[in-house]
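Supplementary Methods S3. Complex input for the GLP-bound model.
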Amino acid sequence: MARIDVNSPVPKYYQLKEILRDMIETKKLGAGQVIPPERELCERYGVSRMTARQAVIELVNEGLLYRVQGRGTFVAEAKLRQGTGRLTSFTQDMQERGMQVSSVVLGIEVEEAGPVVARMLRIDPGDRIIRVRRVRNADGKPMALETSHLLYEVAKGILEVDLSEHSLYEQLGRMGVRIASAEQSYEAVLVNDFESGHLGVPAGSPAMLIERITFDSEERPFEYVKSVYRADRYRITTRLES
Ligand code: GLP
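Predicted complex, serialized as structure tokens:
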């Protein structure tokens, strides 16, 4: 059995975490299996309660374990970790790339949903939506042209907000919308005349169309967005694990 090395400069909680991770990855602890309770981990590895707790909490935060109240801590399905990225806003995405965000609002209107938008948002054609069109700049230069369609009832508060200054997601969050998940697709496209003017690249330049449907914590879609990103400026990197 792996042991904690008390003479190692590596913190004990971290060593325990690595031991547990190894057991999960080598399937000694299988998906759905309950892990030993804290007190047992303490006895087995000669660590304090706090140390055991910290190791477990970190593995929960990383998605390798999950807790069920009153029943214990279980090993998560490895599949759940695959292909799941973090749901970020444009503002967060750019900030993480170390870039300065700004936006130009081209229009914000209350409209009736057409058939496509209605299908995406699971409403009836003709129901009210809000359409926001923005040029999203990074370091002062256009990065993307973004058209968001939002459920009127959920997002009407943003009609009062200056979206050239504020993040849409941050504002929706303040209004109580719990942004929980999204489905996103990527497609290669060529910039058309309209987009060309706003993105500052010649028509026919390559671009990436990203479409997103965003769901709240009740799995209700509240946003359908089409974003056209300049291919010369935007790159997506994902981490894949076997
Ligand atoms: C990304 C998403 C959009 C979302 C936007 C919000 O660009 N593709 O679906 O509307 O972020 O960005 P922000 O909160 O910066 O306004």
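The chain has nine helices and eight strands. Residues 80-237 form a domain with the Chorismate lyase fold (CATH 3.40.1410.10).
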